[in-house]
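Sample entry follows:

_____
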Amino acid sequence: MCTVMEEYHRSLRKYRLNLVEHLIGVDKTRADRYKAEVFPSGTELKERASHVRNQIMCSLHDGSVHHKWICVMGRCESCPGYNIPNEEKEPLANPLQIHFQTYKKVPKCSIHGILKQGLSTCPTCTASLQVEGSKTGKVTIRDRLTDMRTSIVTFHAEYYGPMLLKYKYHYGLVKMLSKNQCFEPRKNTFKAAACDIMTRRDYAERLSAKFKKEIQSDHFGQGTTLSMEGCFVEYLENGEVLAHFHSHMADKSI
């Protein structure tokens, strides 16, 4: 989800830079007004998606690094929400379209490759059924990274806006369960107490280096893989933290 949201945000930034250049040739005053609205800190500062998330919720209070959960879950009536610039609200305001990448359910034939969206059978394989001795492929439907081009109004309504709401909740969980916010206090408590142990488990799934910008569900549970699982155990002895590490090979997660 973080990868998709950052991709949407990078695409939106690129679109806005292109729109500023387009408006300069149409109406300089209009271009300056739009630039000040979408780039208040200048175009040199590359704002991340997490900054937009913070802007659509109430401010942090009492030095806390976490927003209130009523804000994170979208139930707060005081949160400012996401403000779409006027130039991006009207479908006919500008002719530019936004280009971005997203994950779509795409069918693929094991013989003939990528098929059109919505198909559950391969037309080429179906046509070859009349030929004796011909082979037919297997059609699988998975989330695949897809190039998209649409109007900015559609992008906000169907992609950026809904994903921002999901990202707001997801990022809150990730931050709460992060190493500094969740694990570090537990580790300090463990070191301050006697007769306690602390365990950690992890595993490494074998993936080919050719995978790039793909979601985990594209491979997790697909086929049989051999992975190395490890269990890390820490304990106190005479005030000193000692550790043991045990590892084993597994053909499935247990």
Notes: The two ends are 26 Å apart (CA to CA).
